[in-house]
Design brief:
Layout: E1 27-32, E2 35-40, E3 53-57, E4 59-61, E5 65-70, E6 75-83, E7 88-95, E8 104-107, E9 111-119, E10 122-127, H1 133-140, H2 155-160, E11 168-171, H3 183-191, E12 195-202, E13 224-228, H4 230-241, E14 246-249, H5 251-259, E15 269-273, E16 288-292, H6 299-308, H7 310-322, E17 333-337, H8 339-344
Helix pairs in contact: 6-7
Length: 345
C-alpha cells in the first residue's frame, strides 16, 4: 500500500490543544466492522465483559525537554530520547548549528552536559555526575508535549499528560489512550469482572516521525524498549481459558503483546522492538483496541487499519472529522474491534 492511501483532511481546529475538564469527559467512537457508534468515554464499560483482560502500558513520561545555551551563548533545546545509564542519555538537540563532540552545554541555568558524539540523528551526552540524568530532568525539565500542541507546557500538563497508573519512568511521549482513565473507571472495570494487566513500553519521540517512503513496505520503524513480564503472560492465558478477550489500551500495548508473540505464543520479553504493523498483519493476541485518533499517513493509523480493516478505518476517520471529534494526544478515543474475529463470528 501507499503512504497516501492513509491521508485524510483534518481541520486544524480539531487538534486538541488542551485536555478535557475531566479524564473521562472525552467522546468515544466505537468501530465494530462497518458499524459506527457515537458514545461517551464512560460508555466503554458497556463493551467490557466479564473475564476480559485490559492491558495497559504503565510507562511514565519524564519531563524530557530541556532548554539551555552553548558556551557561545547560542540557544539550544534538548529532548531526551533514552536514558542509557546513570550518567548518559541519547537525545535530540535543536540549535542553529549542531554541537560537536566535547562541547559543553549549560542547561536550565542549573547544570552542564557534555556532548560525547552522534548516533545517527541522536546525540550521546554525559550529565553532571552530581545527579543521575533522571534526577536532573525531574528537577528541571519540561513535559515533552507533542509537536502539534502549539503552546508551552504548564503545571496542569504534569498531571494530565500522564496516566493515573504510570509507575515506570522512561517515556518521552504519553501512551495517550490511557489518559482517559481515572481511578474510578479502573475500579468499575474490575467491578464488571474484567481483569487489568500491565506491560511497559517507553514511548520515544520516534512515534511522531512521519513515514517518508511512498511504498509503506519500505518503511523503517523506529525502535522502542519494552517489557512483558511473566505475570502478564499468565493473565492472558487465564483470560483466554475463561473465554475472555484481550483489550489493548493503546497502540503501545499492541506493540508489546505482538512483539512478545511473534511465533504465535506469548512469552515474557524484555528488549527493543521495531515491529511495524500495517494492513495484512495477522494479529496474535489483540481482540480489541482502545486508541486515540492519529495523524494522517502515520504508522499508527496503519496499525489501526490492520486491526479494523482499511476501508472501515478510513470511513471511521471521515466520520470523526464530520462529527467534530477531537484529535491526537488530548483528543477523543475510538474502540476498535478486530475485523478478522468479527468475520468469524
Amino acid at each position: 500500500m501507499k503512504r497516501q492511501d492513509f491521508y485524510f483532511e483534518l481541520p486544524e481546529e480539531l487538534i486538541a490543544q488542551q485536555p478535557t475538564s475531566q479524564r473521562r469527559a472525552s467522546r468515544l467512537l466505537v468501530v465494530q466492522g462497518t458499524g459506527l457508534q457515537d458514545k461517551q468515554f464512560v460508555d466503554i464499560l458497556d463493551f467490557i465483559e466479564p473475564h476480559d483482560l485490559l492491558v495497559f502500558n504503565n510507562t511514565k513520561v519524564i519531563p524530557a525537554r530541556l532548554f539551555g545555551q552553548k558556551a557561545t551563548g547560542g540557544q539550544i533545546e534538548l529532548l531526551i530520547e533514552r536514558i542509557i545509564n546513570d550518567s548518559q542519555a541519547l537525545c535530540h538537540i535543536r540549535s542553529s548549528k549542531s554541537p560537536k563532540p566535547g562541547a559543553k552545554l549549560w542547561i536550565e541555568n542549573a547544570f552542564e552536559v557534555e556532548v560525547l558524539g552522534r548516533e545517527g540523528a541522536l546525540f550521546s551526552v554525559a550529565f553532571d555526575p552530581a545527579k543521575t540524568p533522571l534526577e536532573w530532568v525531574e528537577a528541571h525539565g519540561h513535559m515533552p508535549l507533542p509537536p502539534y500542541i502549539e503552546r508551552a507546557d504548564t503545571d496542569n500538563d504534569k498531571n494530565r499528560y500522564q496516566t493515573v497508573y504510570a509507575t515506570r519512568p522512561g517515556a518521552v511521549a504519553a501512551p495517550t489512550a490511557g489518559l482517559h482513565f481515572d481511578e474510578a473507571m479502573l475500579a468499575a472495570i474490575k467491578a464488571k469482572g474484567a481483569d487489568i494487566g500491565f506491560v511497559t513500553l517507553h514511548v520515544g519521540a520516534g512515534t511522531f516521525k512521519p513515514v517518508q517512503v511512498d511504498d509503506i513496505s519500505q518503511h523503517t520503524m523506529h525502535s522502542e524498549w519494552l517489557e512483558v513480564e511473566a505475570g502478564l503472560v499468565e493473565q492472558v492465558k487465564a483470560a483466554r481459558a475463561k473465554g475472555g478477550r484481550i483489550i489493548a489500551v493503546g497502540t503501545t500495548s499492541v506493540r508489546c503483546l505482538e512483539s512478545a508473540s511473534k511465533d504465535g505464543q506469548l512469552r515474557p520479553y524484555t528488549g527493543d522492538t521495531d515491529i511495524f504493523i500495517s494492513p495484512g498483519y495477522q494479529f496474535q493476541q489483540v481482540d480489541v483496541l482502545l486508541t486515540n485518533f492519529h495523524l494522517p499517513e502515520s504508522t499508527l493509523i496503519m496499525l489501526v487499519s490492520a486491526l479494523a480493516g482499511y476501508q472501515e478505518t478510513m470511513a471511521a476517520y471521515r466520520h470523526a472529522v464530520e462529527q467534530r471529534y477531537r484529535f491526537f494526544s488530548y483528543g477523543d478515543a475510538m474502540l476498535v474491534f478486530n475485523k478478522a474475529l468479527s468475520r468469524e463470528e
